[in-house]
Write a structure and sequence with these properties.
The protein contains 14 helices and 10 strands. The protein has about 325 residues and is α/β, with parallel strands linked by helices. Strands 1, 2, 3, 4, 5, 6, 7, 8, 9 and 10 form a 10-stranded mixed sheet that branches.
Amino acid sequence: MSPTLSRLGRRRALRGAAAAVVALGLLLWWLAPWSEQPPGGAITVSTGTRAGVYQKYGELLRSSLGKHMPDLEVRLETSDGSQENVRRVATGQADFAIAAADAVETYRLHHRSDAGRLRGVARLYDDYVQLAVAPDSGIRSVEDLRGKRVAIGPPKSGVRLIANRVLTAAGIDPETGIRPSSDGIDTGPGRLGHGLDAFFWSGGLPTDGLKTFAEQSALRFVPIEADLVAKLHEQGGATRHYRATSMPESAYPGSQLGSAVPTMAVSNLLITRTDVDPELTEWLTRIVLRSRDNIGAHVHSAQLVDVRTAIYTDPLRLHDGARRYYRSVKP
């Protein structure tokens, strides 16, 4: 073997050894017990409707926090959804909440004094807009909703915010162009064909509140095409957080007949307030990331929580405690 090849071999070996050491170090860090004493006290977490993903995620997160922070009391409060959650955190009625980025931005644009206290903890997963109708419905597009009985979600929900914007982009007045209903994920699916022609939902995939109906082929999803998302962007403001995408065919196999459905998505954020204790927030951020697999076993969309993307909490700046955590795990 030539000296040159020998040197190349040694360099490759050294690089491989260095990579192995780094990988081992990360693995040991991940598995190592936490040496410091976790903070205690009590926090309130605002979630969502009982059949929605926010509530399920909140319940599982509370369980994880209970294992690692036994002196912390976690109170969960149901809500209409994102809009109410943002308001509760901003005004001090809750310490943490999950909210869609568009709802956070909307609150910031209309309540600048309170909104200045809001901070991000982690970007969690994406909500997909799901416009559902009965299988035999003649509704094939958003434009076909004109004059129909449509559930647009509770007044303080993120669904209501999105539904109104989608309808407006399609040229339909949300108040006069349809017969609106406040049904949410808890009641909407069961009323299709029995008082409702369609309902909007925005949530992680799949949403348990829709899964049973979908498996029984009791639903069909109406596409929200990319050109409509482009019209949404023309509305300005918080609509920049919407992106065109598709619901994969695996989301609700019984209802999608092996086909992806064009739609739009928006990211969900775990949010808090500037005055919440940094040490507590650092611990909570750590547990959110380390509990991904356990929570993801029950909330499929939570499997996408990742330290590389969690740090991007636009439109909010990171809370000091969350920033401290991300710096501690930066490669």
